[in-house]
Design a protein that fits this description.
The protein has 373 residues and is an all-alpha fold. It is 71% helix and 3% strand. The protein has 15 helices and four strands.
Length: 373
């Protein structure tokens, strides 16, 4: 709930609203959080792959070992200092990358911090890392849906936009956004002080120099779209999605076989997990959850592959996306406890396929894609 303004007497019967302390989201806050999540995920994946390929080297040698959690802490410090020291627009994406990469390096070693013997490979580490990643991504999603149309958020956005005026010519998009915020503030009767401020600032924005349209940028984007249309027409894009869904679906159905063994196997049934035989009759709860989840994901992805091949794009892409979201947001948490290396590879492949699905929907399925041009 937002803070309720309380009036205090500051003069002869003139009430003044008390200063508000509730936080105001930055206009680019959701984008910065998405950048943190991407930097976090990429850092963890690259770090794990690098350590696996190089045999887990130790930096320092002898008595000392410079764990990568230290480098993560250093990046977090750098990101914090940048945000505190400078106010340029470019500082925020740089800070987001430092925070994401630093957090990834730090959280990647969580196994050492939660075990008595500093066990980097403890099975609980991967689920914790993955839950942290999902939490940041979820927060970014919530931030994206936050409405920033109240007078205070618009005033903050204008104040941020004025820094771009100080730095030089505005982009056409930045100028349009500033004018929209100023018009909305000027028309809002709830804050006459901000309305007066908006009317006073608007001439400055109107007269501010504007960058010419980016012809090179538009030409490069047009060239990429033409290349995409030539190299990935609808039938090729659909076939790639169907093949990817079928392959991932078949691999995920391995979980169904494991689930059958877990449920139907007798007390003497022995499972081999990560090259290690479990004691007879052992049924790890997270293994059961991961197997059941993989079975559901496999069924959804195979259904998506069939429906895509039949030309039912809307149902096929929706089913594929549902299976991938279930895998990314839930199944992989339990799967990380079972096999940390497997979940790293699975996340990368599933995320790439999800990007392909979203691009297909944008190109061919959404109302904008189907509207005549």
């Amino acid at each position: 709930m937002g803070a309720v303004p309380v009036t205090v007497e500051t003069g002869p019967g003139v009430p003044t609203a008390r200063r508000r302390r509730t936080p105001v989201q930055r206009p680019d806050g959701a984008r910065s959080l998405r950048l943190v999540a991407v930097a976090f995920g990429v850092t963890v994946v690259v770090t794990r792959l690098y350590l696996e390929l190089t045999g887990y080297p130790q930096i320092g040698g002898g008595e000392y070992h410079l764990a990568h959690a230290l480098w993560g802490g250093l990046l977090l410090l750098v990101g914090g200092l940048l945000a505190l020291l400078w106010g340029n627009r470019w500082v925020h994406p740089v800070t987001a990358v430092c925070v994401g990469a630093g957090s990834g390096l730090f959280v990647d070693e969580v196994g050492k911090f939660i075990t008595a013997h500093n066990d980097y490979f403890t099975p609980l580490a991967a689920p914790i890392i993955y839950v942290v990643f999902l939490a940041v991504l979820g927060l970014a999603t919530l931030a994206r849906r936050t409405q920033l149309d109240a007078p205070r958020p618009r005033a903050y956005a204008v104040a941020q936009g004025l820094t771009e005026v100080a730095d030089g010519p505005l982009t056409p998009a930045a100028r349009a956004a500033l004018l929209d915020d100023l018009d909305a503030m000027a028309a809002d009767p709830s804050r006459p002080d901000l309305a007066a401020h908006a009317r006073a600032v608007r001439p400055l924005i109107e007269d501010a120099p504007v960058e010419p349209p980016g012809h090179r940028t538009r030409a490069a984007r047009a060239a990429l779209l033409r290349a995409e249309a030539v190299l990935a027409p609808r039938w090729v894009h659909r076939l790639v999605l169907a093949a990817g869904s079928a392959l991932l679906g078949l691999l995920s159905l391995v979980g169904l076989a494991i689930l059958v063994v877990l449920v139907a196997g007798g007390p003497d049934a022995t499972l081999v997990l990560d090259d290690q035989a479990l004691p007879p009759g052992t049924r790890p709860p997270l293994l059961v959850v991961a197997s059941a989840g993989e079975a559901v994901v496999g069924a959804l992805l195979l259904l998506a592959a069939v429906t895509l091949l039949l030309g039912r794009d809307r149902f096929g892409t929706a089913t594929c996306r549902a299976g991938l979201v279930i895998a990314l947001a839930g199944v992989n948490v339990a799967l990380g406890y079972v096999d940390a290396e497997l979940v790293v590879s699975a996340v990368v492949v599933e995320f790439v396929l999800l990007l392909g699905v979203e691009r297909y929907r944008t190109r061919f399925v959404t109302p904008e894609a189907l509207s005549p041009r």
